[in-house]
Amino acid sequence: MFKKKYIHPDTGDVLTFSENVSWKVQSIIRNWWFVLGWTGLSATWWANPHLFRDNHSFIHWQLLASWLAVTVELIIGIALIGQTKRDAMIIRHILKLDKLQMEHIEDIVEDIHGDVQP
After folding, report:
1. 3-class SS at 94?
2. Domains in the chain: how many in total?
3. Average pLDDT taken over every residue of the chain
4. ∠ at Cα 36 (60, 80), nearest 5°?
5. What's the domain range around 41?
6. How far is CA 79 from the centre of its chain?
7. Residue 1 domain-assigned?
8. pLDDT score for 118
9. pTM, full prediction
10. Residue 65 falls within a domain, yes or no?
11. pLDDT per residue as tens digits for the range 65-117
12. Sign of torsion, CA 71 73 75 77?
């Protein structure tokens, strides 16, 4: 399960198991139906607290909402940190190629100027 390679469908990046789970969960929570459902459920709970058996339903709802907010941030953070690391690796590779290219250009310029005798 953890040794399997997971590929991001949009970028083609190789993901870790936790990043793969994070992207799958994000595909559920970053959806208009989820937002509308959560909003509808919240509005129902706030407008009709007497419909719920527990006298402390508002406090429980606030705790649930807080837990959901923290959990969503953690899930998004896992994917964000993984993507940032991959981006940094690519940027370092590009900078290395740029440095090698500049050294090659300097060698060519030096060879050209070295051949020209005043």
Report:
1. helix
2. 1
3. 83
4. 85
5. 6-115
6. 3
7. no
8. 46
9. 0.57
10. yes
11. 899 889 888 888 888 888 888 888 889 999 999 999 999 998 888 888 765 44
12. negative
